[in-house]
Amino acid sequence: QTSRTPAISVSAESCIPAGLRLGPVPGIFKLGKYLSDRREPGPKKKVFSYPVPPVFQVRMVRGELVDEAGSSALEWIGLIRAARNSQEQTLEAVADLPGGQIFYRALRDVQPGEELTVWYSNPLAQWFDIPVTATPTHDEKGEERYICWYCWRTFKYPNSLKAHVHFHCALSHGRPFLHHDH
């Protein structure tokens, strides 16, 4: 995602098997830069894996997922939304070598109709100096919240906090993420 326009939702039209790799991800990798606690509705894009429903003229090509127009993942992989937490995450961003090409890998079988969302694998997060953990606190209503230990801004989801610390917090000054145990 490269802008603050409403996010396009990318969902599976058929089962995507666990372990399937998509990519490589083209361009400058800034997963999570525009992540928000809020979910803005936007257009939907369907992607397919083998077997494809016969009403759609798409197919598995050399082990690649293709969209409803038959476009390869390289044309739409950047539209996959960053996961706000591990419960909604279906893909993880991985690299075979530090600084190498980045791919998305299905963490589990993704069911038809399910949205594709992605977050960093732990090794890739460490490579990019993205916080790996975020410890929740509870607000006055007892709801989980995540607090930036630099500027005290509050977030509903852990990955929103991690993205904030890495991309936006003016007070972190590029320091690695600290949680309250430090």
Question: What attributes characterize this protein structure?
Answer:
182 residues; mainly beta; Beta-clip-like; five-stranded mixed β-sheet; three-stranded mixed β-sheet; 2 helices; globular; disordered N terminus; disordered C terminus; PRD13 protein; nucleus; SET_dom_sf; zinc-finger; Znf_C2H2_type
Explain what you see:
This protein has helices spanning 122-127, 158-168, and strands spanning 9-12, 21-22, 44-48, 66-67, 81-82, 91-95, 102-106, 117-120, 137-138, 144-147, 154-155. It is globular and about 50 Å long. The chain has a domain at 9-129: Beta Complex (Beta-clip-like). A hairpin with a 5-residue loop joins strand 9 (137-138) and strand 10. It has 182 residues and is mainly beta.
Structural classification: mainly beta
DSSP strand count: 11
Give the integer mean of the pLDDT values. Answer: 79
**Could you name the ranges where pLDDT drops below 50 across 5 or more consecutive residues?**
1-5, 50-61, 177-182
Beta-sheet strand percentage?
15-25%
CATH class of the domain at 9-129: Mainly Beta
**Topology as a string of helices (H) and strands (E):** EEEEEEEEHEEEH
CATH architecture of the domain at 9-129: Beta Complex
Radius of gyration based on Cα positions? 17 Å
Biggest sheet record: 5 strands, mixed
What is the third-level CATH name, the topology of the domain at 9-129? Beta-clip-like
State the distance separating the first and last CA atoms: 33 Å
Taken from the alpha-carbon principal axes, the silhouette is: globular
Largest sheet, spatial ordering of strands: 2-7-6-8-5
Total helices: the number is: 2
Please estimate the helix content. under 10%
GO molecular function: zinc ion binding
Protein name: PRD13 protein
InterPro entries: PRDM13_PR/SET (IPR044407), SET_dom (IPR001214), SET_dom_sf (IPR046341), TR-Histone_Methyltrans (IPR052296), Znf_C2H2_type (IPR013087)
Main location: nucleus
